[in-house]
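Predict both folds.
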Amino acid sequence: MSGEPTDSTVTPFPIPAGAKFGRVAVIDIGSNTLRLVVYDTPTRLPVPIFNEKANCALASGLQQSGRLNPDGVVKAIRSLTRFVRLSEQMGVERLELVATAAVREASDGLEFVARIEEVLGVAVQVVSGAEEARLAALGLLSGVPDADGLLADLGGASVDLVELNSGNFGANATLPLGHLRLAEAAKGKAGRALKLVEGEMAGLGWLAGCRGGTLYAVGGICRALARVLIEQVGYPLHVVDGYTMERRDALRLTRLISGLGSGSLFNISGVSKRRIKSLPYCAMVLGALMETAQPKYLTFSGFGMREGQLLKVLPESLRDQDPLLAGCAGMAERTGRFSIEGQEMFDWMAPLFPPDRDPHSRLRMAACMLSDIGWSEHPDYRAEQTFLRVLRLPFAGLSHADRVSLALAIFVSYNGHPDNAVVSPVRTLLDEEELARANVVGLALRLAHTVSGSAPGLLTQTKFERSGAEIILKLPDDPRESDVFSSEAVERRLGTLAKALGGEGRLA
């Protein structure tokens, strides 16, 4: 946690304001479900403000009939009518309707699209398999820009595969191995389903090039599988996005689940009965991909095709922003008391840390932005409530270790007790060095808000210096200016911060 003092202001994380852009909604007409997600897009990367899905199973029966499920079509028209009308009432300025594999492949798919456009007066994009895969990859890369390995977006009718080379797209393929279609083609027989899966993958020689990378699993059924795995292994953080397993453990569990009947899975909490019926087929496809591509890890993503479609229509000034920092900045604007900015605190505490820009400094910047979000909570529960809130942020660009580090720093800044029952289980996701780093950031944040009273402009009148093991906070020379900073609370919290850094604190 030590570093040489720097005289320059550290500003490594500019967040461009961008142009004003109104609300955008994406309606995903999938093979199994329809989903409406509405995003508020002011001057930063958006976060969802409304999310609703409808189970229509358009692909049910597609394998045999070649046509969309008639009951599903009726449900879909009704749901789409609601989604479009809701979007109008919410002030959505741009509405994107995207249809995927079931509509693309069904003999009556274009008829279905024409009916939607005639009844609702909106355009529907029917994307190709390659475009669907590209959009899913774009959504993933918005949070994991250097993703390396293989993306698998598993839907009801197909699985879209994209090779990822350190953030760049490689080969891609679309296979008819969606969980609904696979179940129908195999007539419910696991052995037959496995032969179909292995046969489809046999011709994809490029999968071998993904060896040693990460298999990124995308799609609603994959998220349902992740919830099952999280529960089965007793994992302490119930957040799907970023949940990662080593290949060996993931293979063992996917083999187990793919061999179970759906009746054995009905007691799993948090997964709908419709999803449970498809879990063995999802597990089978992911297991076969791990056998073929030999990735090092299996990681589940909460971001995919819808997010890719959103990014596609946003101005470039928004697309280029860091999703974590943009989300934190937006949250700070909505919840902070005063106008003190994260950058001001980041610059102020910079001499306490190494000067390099790295993942640790990025998390520190996010912590600075979020450091005042708990001010309105009840004092007795402020630390705990803000910890849970930060831990479960709906932003891309966070690993699970990042989530815990960030939440723990905010928890410490609100004087949270280290033995808190909410915090203790997830502390195990960090090593001792990471725990110490989060503690120092939290103590620095607490001191920053004590020194400034959370008001803007005051921190810049003080400055950290390091002299051997001594941490010195220099105040203005004029007593009339320095009196506002001199207090027992400032001295005590400076001492606590210095002790965490292995030294002693002093006001000068």
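Second protein follows, with its predicted structure tokens after the sequence.
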Amino acid sequence: MSKHFSKDALLYSLALWLVGYVLGIVLFFAVPPSVLGWVIMPIGAAITVWVAMKKVRGDSFKYFLGVAAVWTAIAVLCDYLFLVLVFKPADGYYKLDVYIYYALTFLIPAVVGWWRLQASRPVASGQ
């Protein structure tokens, strides 16, 4: 695993997850737990799009799919270890908002990578 990929995949995924974790703790006192994920998701998605567009530097779609897979695996693992096991939510943790969050965690870097690679392709002339 290259140093570049480690930064894009591991470092950014942990940082993004930590931002969501801290937001969850801070907002826990202001927002009902049943809607907490729905409040955090747009903020987290916006930050994730920004990181994927401005910080992740790949040169192939396979690279971006690898980043997407690691980001998703880290999100699932950290959620389980630091939310499910630690806080033991009474009504459970895995609901629609969490599944959408996992889907976005995978789709955002994959779509940004696809878009960036398409935008960098030379346009064929119609001659």
